[in-house]
Amino acid sequence: MDEVVSARPSSTNDFDGTYKLLGELKSGSRSVVYRAEQQKLGREIAVKVLRVRLPDNPAIREQYNEEVRALAALDHPNLVSISGFGIVGDAPYIAMELLEGESLTARLAQGPLPHGLAEQLILALLRALAYLHVRGVVHRNLSPSAMFLQTEANGGVQLKLIDYGLTQRPGGNGNGGSYGGGSGTGNLAQDAVAAALAYRAQAPA
After folding, report:
1. How far is 28 from 35, CA to CA, in rounded Å?
2. Are 92 and 174 within 8 A, CB to CB?
3. What pLDDT, on a 0 to 100 scale, did the predictor assign at position 36?
4. 52 pairs with which residues across the strands?
5. What per-residue confidence (pLDDT) applies to 174?
6. What is the maximal distance between C-alpha atoms in the chain?
7. In what order do the strands lie in the sheet containing 19-27?
8. What is the value of pTM for the model shown?
9. Cβ contacts of residue 145 below 8 Å, gap of 6+?
10. Inter-residue contact 148 to 80 (CB < 8 Å)
11. Under a CB-based contact definition with an 8 Å cutoff, are residues 128 and 147 in contact?
């Protein structure tokens, strides 16, 4: 069983020499999500720190790096974007865009969607999935909790697929993931960690 560790860093003003953690957005059994400032750029982002210890094994860590790089290479307006990643105290983290709004689950709890909005969201989701499929990524666990309605400056909304759930790439494994919640932060980190830990059996000691 993978060792579960604290996801609360010892320093919030200088996290991995790059980020200043401004406050906790969401704490779950598998991760803690922080609102953070990317200090050199002066912009706010989300940092998700996982509650799992990544073994100090070069092959496993390189596999983790490869998986995150593959996710970070995805660039589509309806996918949450990754801006950085790393490992602090054996705990992996991923930095990504900070979204403001609500999950589709929360929006549906308020009642049925207007026809126009429902059509807009369906088309956006189809575009995102088509983009993923062309690149060999298959999402096998779509649900409203995996979709986030980002509030736009003009008052509109933009759908973001924030949880890749069970995904698979050619030659890869299906990996689990879950939305971290908070003020709007996607996961994706579990995909990379699961792949890296699954690689342990194949990696040299």
Report:
1. 15
2. no
3. 93
4. none
5. 41
6. 56
7. 19-27, 31-38, 43-50, 91-97, 82-88
8. 0.73
9. 103, 104, 105, 163, 179
10. yes
11. no
Measured CA to CA, the distance from residue 36 to residue 147 in angstroms comes to 22
**Strand ranges, E, within the chain:** 19-27, 31-38, 43-50, 82-88, 91-97, 101-103, 138-139, 147-151, 157-161, 167-168
Tokens 């969607």 — which residue?
113
Q: Taking 50 as the threshold, does the pLDDT of residue 173 lie above it?
A: no
**Euclidean distance between CA atoms 78 and 158, whole angstroms:** 7
- Token readout for 57 is 């094994």
80 vs 113 pLDDT, higher one: 113
Residue-wise pLDDT for 11-55, tens only, equals 567 888 889 999 998 787 777 889 999 988 889 999 988 887 888
Q: Which two tokens stand for residue 96?
A: 């990504």
CA dihedral (90, 96, 101, 107) in degrees, to 10, reads -70
* Residue range 166-177: mean pLDDT, rounded: 46
